[in-house]
Design brief:
By secondary structure, the protein is an alpha+beta fold. The chain has a single domain, classed as Alpha-Beta Plaits, CATH 3.30.70. The chain is 24% helix and 27% strand. Strands 2-3-1-4 form a four-stranded antiparallel β-sheet. Strand 2 and strand 3 form a beta hairpin.
Amino acid sequence: MGLNDVLYRRQYKIQTEPSVPPLDLKQLKTLGLWINPIKGHYVVTLTSDKDPNNDIATFTTNFKKITQLASTDFKIEPQFGPFTLQNAVDSPWF
């Protein structure tokens, strides 16, 4: 495994609408590593650069299938690593 495989991963920042109940992160673990830094805000980091969820359309489809949310219930912002929480939360939320 190369250094880029370890340090750089696709991350998605997800913000749910206030009316959406908290997501069940155990149910979503098949999509990657999840954190919930503040209410309604989530960061998921993919565990492999070969994950089909690197494509945002694939990730969004799988996310909606698992959560049963509509596209209007959340916003997603894709970005690439490095694999750190700091990188995920440095930029403003939407």
